[in-house]
Structures are given as C-alpha cells and as structure tokens.
C-alpha cells in the first residue's frame, strides 16, 4: 500500500494526487473513495432534483395564467425572471463554496433552503386562502392578492436561493471524484459530463410527462407535492453517499484572487515586463504539488496582467502575485467572450417553457380520451437530447477521433458551434410553423375569438426535437468547457459560468419580450404578442430571433478565433504530471 510523505508532501500509491481529502481533512485512497461508485449517488440525486425543478418550471406559465390570472407577456416575464434568478444565484454559491464552506457543506445547507422553498410553494398552491378564486368569467377574473403573491413568489425565490448553492457544486462534486493525475480516472472524467447530462434528464423527462399531466388533469397540490417529495428523497440519497466522496479543500475566494491580480497590474502600470518569464515572481513547485494543483507557465496573452508578477519593493499580495495566480485570472477572463456568445442561445432555450407552451394551448391536443398537456412537448427536448448524447458519445466521437486525433472527437468550441448553428434553424422553423398556424386560424375565423386551431399540437414537434439536438451539442459542451478551462482552484466558479449564461439568457428574454411588445403596441400597426395568440404575430418575433441567432453566430466565430485553450497555454502541465508520477515511484 502507498503512504504519505511527512510534512504533507506528494501523495502516492493508492492515495489521490489531486489534493482531495475526506471531511476531516485526511488524505483519501482511490480504492476507498471517489470514482464511479461515489458518482452514482451524485447522479441519482440529480435525477430526482431535476424532476423537482422541472416539475415546477415546465408548467409554471400555465399556473400563472390559469390560476393567478396573469396575461401572456406578464406571465412569460415572471417565469423568465424567476428562471434567470435560479441560474444567476450559482455565482454566490460558487463563491461561498470556494472561499468559505467547501462544496459539500455549501451544497448540504443550500439543499435545506431549496427544500423549504419547495414545501412553501406546495402549500401556496394547495391552501384555498393562498390563491385567488376560480375564474368563471374570463373577462372579469379576480387577481391574486398581495399576500397570495408574496407567499407564492417568496417560495419561488427561496427555492432560487437554494439552487444557487446546489447547482454549481453538485456537478463539480461529481467531477472531483476523478483524479486528474491518474490517467485512467482522467479518461473517465472525459465521459462524465455526457453521462451526467444523460442521467439527469431522465428526471426532466418524468417531470415533462408525468408531472405536467398530473398538474393539468389531477391537481396542482399533487403536481407540486410529488416533486417536493422527490427533492427530499434526492437529498437523502446524496447524504447516504457521504462516506464515499472525495472533497477539495476551500482555496479562498476566486474573486479576491482575481481582484488582487487586476489591482496589482493597475498599480504597476508603468513597470516594464521582463522579456524572460523566469524573472517573474513564482512560488516553488512543492507549494503546488502538496495542494494537488498545477503550476502554470506565463503566457503572452493579456500581457498587461503580467505586470502583477513583476518583482518590486513591495511583497503585499495586492502588489505582487505569482505567475500561476496571474494565469488563473487570465483563464477566467479569456472565457468571458465565449460566455457572452452563449447568451443568445440561452434566450432561445427560455422559449421552451414560455411561448412554446402557450402555442401548444391553441392547438388540438386530444388523442382519443387522452388530452396531451402542452408542457409535455418539452419531453421531446429531453428524449432528443438523450438520444443525441448517446449517439455522440458512442459513435460520433469514435469516428471523429480517427481523423482529428482529439480524445473528444472535435474540440469543445466546435461542438458548441454546431449547437449555435442549430439555434438559427430552430427559429426559422418555429417562425414558419407559427405562420402556418396563423393562416389556418384566419381561414377558420378564429382570429378574434382565440379559439382552438384545428391543427395537431405535433406540428410544434420539430422545434422541440431540434432544441434537444442543439442542447446535446451546445449545453453539454458548455458545461464541460467552462469546467475544463477553469483553473484547478476555481472549478466551482467556472461551472457557474455555464449557469450564468442561462440566467442572463432568461433576463434577455424578459427584456426582449417586454420591449418588442411595447414597441409594436405603441408604434406598429399590429401588436406582436397578445393574450390571444391567434391575433398575435409570434411568427415575426421568431423571425427576429432567427436573425439575432445569425448575428450571434458571427460573434461566436470571431470570439473562438482568438481563444486559446488552457492546455495550449499551460505547457508545464504534462511535465508536472510526469514529475509527480516519477516522484511517487521513487518514493515507493
């Protein structure tokens, strides 16, 4: 069996070499903790948690319009504002995890907040006094009272705070179960994110089919009670797996580390940078080895920040930073343009649970005695994504590896680019489909009445299926890209980048919907988005989205042209790995 060098030196033998420990801070053995055994608890948790989250979000717009009696634009914006908050709070959760509590304890505490929000939400839809009375006259519906709205939205946003601590940490906890310094485990991590997405979307599929059917046909009490119970079960499953997890020690606030670099560079803006990188300030290799992280070589990109590691008279951390600290900051900053290029596709994803669902309510949904819930079409997004992820991982990667020699088949940015292109196609198809629906509504005299259009709801299927295909390329690659390219000590923050993209996309959706509705109402001949979709022009709105996606694709190409992958700028990575492995062998 392996041992541990005195003084916290390099771990070897059966011990992990990436700095992971148990909850008491002791080094861990690969045979005892981590790997797929530990990941199984994490993945099963995510299946139930996704069931809980999408059990609420998938059908939320229909609860707001049917039970709280809100208009289409107001309800859609309330959904996207809440979903945007859900995806933005992970920045706070990542900060708390990296700077203070660690990923495990941040996750456990946030899970309690999440469950309390879900429980209160279930009460708000169950108790008659917490919701407005049933609407008998569509033109004179009683609005929800201030108290009713306060309880409902208080529950929703409590839930959002809870997800802020769970979302950035659960996938990172899963990835932490594989040791980057061990070749076999490193290879397993390459498939982790694909199978992670594959597994969790089983929960999403259950929510988009079974739960939305219960909400539409049985009742909202049971429809919200089941995902609340599912969340409680998922938390219990995660806790049961605690003895098997590996943990990364909190390494300090990533924001503070980055701020020190920027401040130091600005304060030394007149100081010249030496031509020889060896003259820059850097810690000894042993300092990084004992923490299980890589030392990073200096790079010429964002050269101004190199001023932060130029030796001067001061040794203050706000005046002098190590080369690795500077390069970590560069890595996070380099990803920001790529992050910005994902905002528009994230805006398109926001349409799945809002306008796409509202479209479905205007179409024929009955098959015999069974009526299809409009929100259940989102299940085809999930099915399409699951199929595409499996085909991608099992066939596409193997075929492309022969040509590119890349272990991923194609680069992560190329995979994301395919998803960006698909979003253009999705919005073109959505616009043409909506144009056809409006023409049929006009031919049958249903424009003013807003009656059900004699077309099957399945005419919307192509846009849902293609959305899942796009997710298999863009969303999976986005999560892996921001995790993979983030520095070792900032993985939670890197993971939160992909969630920030979805958050900003939802807020952009709210802004565009409100702005377009206002402009077309005030200055246009015909308002594009009305409560009566048969009298609206969603076809114009979707065409506008198609153009926006096309322009964004050009921006994405420009940003990727200048991006340099972390592996290419960290030339010492493989050398250090060999040094560590050689040191381990010599120690034994």
Explain what the structure shows.
Strand 2 (366-367) and strand 3 (370-371) form a beta hairpin. The radius of gyration is 26 Å and the shape is globular. It has helices at residues 35-57, 60-66, 72-88, 90-126, 146-175, 183-217, 220-240, 254-267, 285-289, 323-334, 336-341, 343-349, 355-360, 378-404, 412-443, 461-485, 491-522, 538-562, 566-569, 572-587; strands spanning 363-364, 366-367, 370-371, 453-456. The protein has a two-stranded parallel ribbon. A two-stranded antiparallel sheet has the order 2-3. With 588 residues, the protein is an all-alpha fold.
Descriptors for this entry?
two-stranded parallel sheet, globular, disordered C terminus, two-stranded antiparallel sheet, 588 residues
Mean pLDDT: 85
Regions with little confidence, pLDDT below 50 for 5+ residues: 1-11, 568-588
The strand line-up of the biggest sheet is: 1-4
Task: Give the helix tally.
Answer: 20
Q: What is the multimeric organization of the chains shown?
A: single chain
Secondary structure class reads mainly alpha
SSE sequence, one letter per element:
HHHHHHHHHHHHHEEEHHEHHHHH
How many whole angstroms does the radius of gyration measure?
Answer: 26 Å
Helix content: 55-70%
The number of strands is 4
Distance between the termini: 9 Å
Shape: globular
Q: Describe the biggest sheet?
A: 2 strands, parallel
Fraction of residues in β-strands = under 5%
